[in-house]
Amino acid sequence: MPTNAEAADQLREIADLLDVTGERFKPEAYRRAARSVESLTEPLAAVAGRGGLREIPGVGEAIAEKLTEFLATGRIPYLDRLHAEIPSGLLALMRLPGLGPKTARRFWLELGIEGPAELGDAIAAGRLVGVAGFGPKKIEQIRGALAAAPTARTGHRFPIEEVYPIARSIVDALVAGAPTERVELAGSFRRCRETVGDLDVLVTSDAAERVFDVFSALPEVHEIRMRGPTKETVVMRNGLQVDLRVVEPAAFGAALQYFTGSKDHNVRLRTIARDAGLKINEYGVFRGEERVAGATEADVYERMGVPWIPPELREDGHEIDAARAGTLPDPVAARDLVGDLHLHLPPLADGATIARIGADAHRRGIADLGVVVDGPPDADGPAAAPDELRRFLRDDRSTRWHLAAEATPDTVRSPVADVEYLILRPGRAPAAPSVVPDRPVPVRLVAHVGPDPIAARPWIDLARSIDAAIEVGPGPERLDSTGARAALAVGGTLSVPTGVGLPERDPLGPVALGFARRAGATAARVTNARPWPNGRPAARPHR
DNA sequence: GCCGTTTTCGGCCCGACTGTTTTCAGTCG
Q: Does strand B come within 7 Å of the CB of A99?
């Protein structure tokens, strides 16, 4: 059975081929459907099985039919026909930076060039010289793109946890070293998408040139791709593209809204503006020539008659209708988190380490910390905390510490005696948990499940059935926002790692929180936003 | 090809930047 990602790839392939044919709106329609298919929380076949394809945003009669064919046969005849008409090498040309569908089409129809190799030969033979629209710089640019092609990662998206420290360091550098008033990150990073294609940075400044100078001198910057009066684009050492824009203060909110997206969210907002006789763009909300909002994002939404929407929820546009109807969830916020169920400590952690983590928790208003004491790497089953470590935990006055142990369904029957609760994780068997463990101590958390919402499904269901939370966050061992949404949909509860005790730029806490928010989790659905069960009443830490 | 809280037809964003240009086309986001 094909995966959702494979189905989305097929739709994108159709979109790219239609681009070459010069179609105006169909390519975007296919791409929108592809985005929707990709973010489904259940297999496409299951959606199709209950007749739900047409409910997928962007999927209408024609695309639903193609998806049905794909599920049944693994092929889409329409795509096969397109492939038969259009040389596939043209797609490779189109994907080279600086080349698009128009140019690829011209190469094909005017010069008979059907792929990168032929284009290289044509340039070497001087066949592009004198062709209208191809001056020396353009030819050189194409030659460079062809040379870089084998290593180019166009369209590559970076995991947000990889981008997070880079993004923070850019902001810190611009705040500290450049003549800026406001500095904000926008784009899919601000929406806390799981992956980020490029990073958008917005600043206000009356000295754009100096801001660009500071920015492009950062050690992580690999090359400057372009620089104009208001915008500079660079590529970082790891290949991440970063766009820096300087905007005037009166337009800052509009620009932040516009560049945060998503695309579909903005399309919906523009429709609302048009219907209200307004115009919205990155410079503001306009009635005729007059700008009626733009300085803050709140003004922009208010002027549109739409409640402000948290960035993490700005996706397919339906959130706007939900917000207007008052049914948009109020997502969990950092201030809601009063505990953390899942820290790890080495068995030889000392008093200074405990005190440092406790102080960080105290500063952030986190009163209860559940810790797992890690045993030797090959130990079978949960480790016990050494007496000295237990003394440190008991003596720390800033935080209430709780001992937990990780267990698999195989080992859950033999937990150590001194733990307060268990953290269940998949065992060696890759398949679904076959037993609901008996519980000498309660299982409060299911963790290390992984981001694939389909593989995670049995664990989501298990967590729900034993009234345990399931952990959300970045990386290969946690649910992402799609998985978290699936968990919430079946009535489950999330646990959101806080990153307490970790370095300042560590992505775990902020990204985990962002994923929970994207999933639409309210504080009521987050276990560590609630008082610790059976917790002793204690003085609340100050914030 | 999709969509609709004025629409089942007629829209679907548009500005910055680059390279090529005598005023604009293509790409990108």
A: yes
